[in-house]
Amino acid sequence: MNNWTSDEFAQRLRDVGTAAYHDQHPFHRRMNSGELSREQIQLWVANRFYYQKNLPIKDAILISRCPIREIRQVWIQRILDHDGYGGDPGGIEKWLKLAEATGLAQADLESDRLLLPGVRFAVDAYVQLVATRSWIEGVASSLTELFAPNLMAARLEAFERHYPWIERDALAYFRARLSQAPRDSDHGMSLVLEHCQTRLLQEAAIDALQTKCQILWAQLDAMDNHDPTDTSTP
């Protein structure tokens, strides 16, 4: 079984997003079309926060498992982007500001009071993936960021057009990711192409990326199947 060339391998990784990225999920499409109610937007913001706050935890685990110092020196920027550093409040704080703008209390997000079990299960599975597979498979799973800039641009436009009741300043997280995601995906792709030099490793990387896409999809499934008017469960 021959290895794919770098170009073939890179294209196969990109093809994963074409087939399975969560921008194609019905819930996401309705959100971008302006079809979600205020309660559904709040549900998405509250539950997506669990994913956001676990990203630096995931990245810290990946750093702890990566044996190459130069990679750790670059990867740590992802933790700073989300946790904040110096004058930058970070992505988690920006997301909490988004939550406030939708009418949610920060305490409810930070306590996971509104978290759906299906979302918790999916996000925990992502952290577990990075903790149990090889460090380069963890890097490969992050390559959903290849597809994020277009999603973020479309999401930003959709929120500004269809949900004007959310203050524009509260959309700062989306604007920041327009530049952060390409930087991160370029770095991640270069690492995967460099360190996956056997067909077995190449296929493992693709499987990790496909699994990450399924995890993102599963989060939206949980939200799509939840009735936001049902107050008996979160």
Question: Brief overview, please?
Answer:
The chain has 234 residues and is an all-alpha fold. The protein is built from eleven helices and no strands.
How is the secondary structure organized here?
Elements: H1 6-20, H2 26-32, H3 38-65, H4 69-83, H5 91-101, H6 106-110, H7 117-132, H8 135-141, H9 148-162, H10 172-195, H11 199-224
Describe the structure.
This protein has 234 residues and is an all-alpha fold. It has a single domain (6-224), classed as Heme Oxygenase, Chain A (Up-down Bundle). Helix content is 72%, strand content 0%. The protein is built from eleven helices and no strands. Helix 1 runs parallel beside helix 11 and helix 9 (148-162) packs antiparallel against helix 10 (172-195). It starts with 5 loop residues before the first helix and ends in a 10-residue tail after the last helix.
The poorly predicted ranges are none
CATH architecture: Up-down Bundle
Q: Please report the distance between the alpha carbons of the first and last residues.
A: 49 Å
The main sheet comes to: none
Share of residues in helices? over 70%
Strand content: under 5%
Number of helices: 11
Shape: globular
Give the name of the CATH superfamily: Heme oxygenase-like
Instruction: Report the order of strands and helices.
Output: HHHHHHHHHHH
The CATH topology is what? Heme Oxygenase, Chain A
How many strands?
Answer: 0
Derived structural class: mainly alpha
CATH class, anyone?
Answer: Mainly Alpha
Radius of gyration: 18 Å
Mean pLDDT: 94
- Number of spatially distinct domains: 1
